Amino acid sequence: RSKEKGGNRCTFYNPIMDIDSFKRFTLEKDLRLAIHDNKLELYFQPRIDLKSGKIVSAESLVRWNHPEWGMLSPAEFIPLAEDTGLILPLTHWVELTVCSLITSWQAEGISYVPISINVSARQFLSKNFIQSLKQILQETQVDGHWLEIEITETSILENQKLVESTISELKTLGIKVSLDDFGTGYSSLAYLTQYNADVLKIDKYFIRDVTTNPSNAAVVKSIIHLAQGLGLKVVAEGVETMDQLTFLKQYECDEIQGYLFSKPVPVTEFKKLLAKEVLIPSEINQRIETDT
Ligand code: C2E
Ligand code: MG
Ligand code: MG
Ligand code: MG
């Protein structure tokens, strides 16, 4: 599962351990330490409501600045964390960090927004997922309404009964549930009606060329329509251009997330974004004009 980027990597023959499994081995050891020593970082990417132009929530995304390899993308270490079980303490750290931040925002009296947390299949289906989340909410005195849990199709195809009961327990806690990367997995439409999710996030794959590829445009229009029919909020991921924004506005997508508005940013920068008022479309228009 570990995807290796191309480029100039050493390809000498090592009879004991090849370079990939060596890197994997040290990464696992380093990740364990990084979680333990509180060396991971959490970035935040805002989600913007297309009607009001305001930030209405944000996704938390983990970052790891490795002492030797520099900033690693989650795509490089989340699969490793899933395979080794380190995903459990990692997610615990994310949940605790998010809830502690919310507590501090509350204390500072600033106006903030709900935060979403990505949860891997393995974690979502693990026995004490709900129990541990409940405990964090209790310890930090955070109301579940400030949280959203993002799951992907792989999580929900497996054990239907368990998925159903986990989702309903989350809802009892006031926590919203979103279906992440929608459209790229098995995309069974049955689970959309079966599970009581709140939000559907259209995968950025479909957004990338939505204005130039008529098939993807048709898919996006249909997903928006479908979500609306089912009473789900619909979010477009990976929005990078004004043209994409215009398209999504025209077909009444609810919210957007993407580089057009902001990349994922550290918490200090996220707080600055929160402090601003209405930001689209005029300010984004301006930003695009001044950037070029
Ligand atoms: P995701 O949950 O689908 O998160 C959205 C990804 O799209 C993020 O990548 C974000 O930086 C990227 N993105 C947002 N806007 C744009 C855009 O306009 N253009 C492009 N090209 N990309 C955009 P990131 O942060 O590298 O995370 C990748 C994946 O790693 C996430 O996909 C999620 O599946 C996983 N991940 C990240 N943080 C966590 C975590 O705390 N726990 C778990 N279990 N998984 C995580
Ligand atoms: Mg996500
Ligand atoms: Mg996604
Ligand atoms: Mg993804």
UniProtKB/TrEMBL annotation:
Domain (EAL) spans: 24-278
Protein's recorded name:
EAL domain-containing protein
Q: Which organism is it from?
A: Paenibacillus planticolens
Lineage, top ranks = Bacteria, Bacillati, Bacillota, Bacilli, Bacillales
Note the residue range shown relative to the complete protein: 291 to 582 of 692
